[in-house]
Amino acid sequence: MEPPNKHTRSNAEPAMSHSFPDLSALPEPVLIHILSFMDPKEAVQTCILSKRWRNLWTFIPSLNFEHFRYRGTTAAFVHFVANMLYFRGASKLDTFRLRWHAGCEHQVSDYGEEICEIHVSNASSWIFSALSCKPLVISLDLRGFTNLKLPHALFTCASLEQLDLKLNNRSNEETIGPKYVNLPNLKKLNLSLLTLNNPVMQGILRGCPLLEELSLSKCSLEFSEMKSDLLSHLTIISCQGSAVVEILMPSLILLHLKNFCPGDTELSLKNTPSLVKVFVSYEYFVEDLFSGAEYEFFKCLTTVTDLELYGLGVKVLLEKIILNCPLFNNLKRLTYGQWPMNEKLDLLCQLLQHTPNLEKLTIVQKKPANPGNAKEKGVTGQIPFSCKQLKAIEIKYSDPSGVHELVDILLRNTNHRERVLIGFSRF
């Protein structure tokens, strides 16, 4: 009997396979889903793999074009985006994102007025092409462009459910000042770096009847009223203005205010009976602009169950209104701090006098400016408070100095310390 050939395998020898599964064998929807996680340029390059892959990229439901990430000249970026939108045609598009800042130094050395005008035209045509695919989400970050006019179709797109605009073009009202807004299915709107006057703001709110979430970031607020029947989430971050803004939103559940200086722009909660969660963070407070409207604002928080107060500006504000602060009978969870706790801890005890049904207290403690000088800061810890429902205290700290003293003061002023759970975490 001849010995077995070294290139043959006996029947008793187990079959061994060192090949990997063929990716092309996956169903087409799965392949398209995989491509949607790739950079657009890389997704297009898969067309060379085989005949089956040749046109798969044209069905990607999400496009994300970022000028910063594109490895090439601005001219190449413009050519690529234009061609990709052209060849994919009217294939269904769920999400279109375009991030392009004029004058990007690492790709263009001279952004003259003529070049900017050309790129403005390019950006507008790309947005129009995306709108023809009936997208659900459009996100535009186009800063530094002059004379930018967004296509009117952007503000009448019936398929849109989310729109993000970051334009940095406050002086040009035509950018975000359409004469007519009709976005019947829009549920989420994020606006950044824009000037919003009364006609623009009212036109947006009237033209978005299903709007649920509105976020304004670094905007100039030049309107006097925000009225919406369905809006449930309102976020205002680092905005400025010179008017009193009345908020009439019967369905508002969450209000998020960050780096928003009271006394500069005043918020008046006129009709917010559903409000249950409020986040307030002031880094500074202009005492000379204190008008008493801040007290009225806190009076409207009696329906709130979750309240978060952060920043030195909030501390200064509380010191001014604490004696007239209303009772927060519905408040269950309070988060308080982000300033040195050895500075007037009595302020916290005074605030707890107004939260009789509090169940959880979270304190975020920054490193004390002068450890050991609590007495010089006027901290006595002798202000009693009664939180009969208090079940848990959580201390978040960056430095352990004064933490145990803080817990001792809190427990000393509650009448059922044996039932309170204490938790600690460091950040």
Features:
427 residues, alpha/beta, Monooxygenase, 14-stranded parallel beta sheet, 3-stranded parallel beta sheet, 9 helices, elongated, disordered N terminus, F-box domain-containing protein, F-box_AtFBL13-like, LRR_dom_sf, F-box-like_dom_sf
Give an account of the 3D structure.
Mean pLDDT is 79; it is low at 1-20, 104-115 and 371-379. By secondary structure, this protein is an alpha/beta fold. It has helices at 28-35, 40-45, 74-88, 113-131, 198-207, 293-299, 312-321, 346-352, 403-412, and strands at 62-66, 95-101, 137-143, 162-166, 188-192, 195-197, 213-217, 220-222, 225-227, 233-237, 240-241, 244-248, 254-258, 266-271, 277-281, 306-310, 333-340, 360-366, 392-397, 421-426. β17 (333-340), α8 (346-352) and β18 (360-366) form a beta-alpha-beta unit. The longest helix has 19 residues, at 113-131. Among the domains are: 24-60, Monooxygenase (Up-down Bundle); 62-223. α3 packs parallel to α4.
Please outline what is shown here.
This protein has 427 residues and is α/β, with parallel strands linked by helices. The chain has 9 helices and 20 strands.
The helical percent reads 10-25%
Count of beta strands: 20
Work out the radius of gyration.
29 Å
Beta strand %: 15-25%
Query: What does the overall shape look like?
Result: elongated
Output the number of helix runs.
Answer: 9
InterPro entries: F-box-like_dom_sf, F-box_AtFBL13-like, F-box_dom, F-box_SCFL_complex_component, LRR_dom_sf, LRR_FXL15/At3g58940/PEG3-like
Organism: Rhynchospora tenuis
Domain F-box: 20-68
Pfam families: F-box, LRR_At5g56370
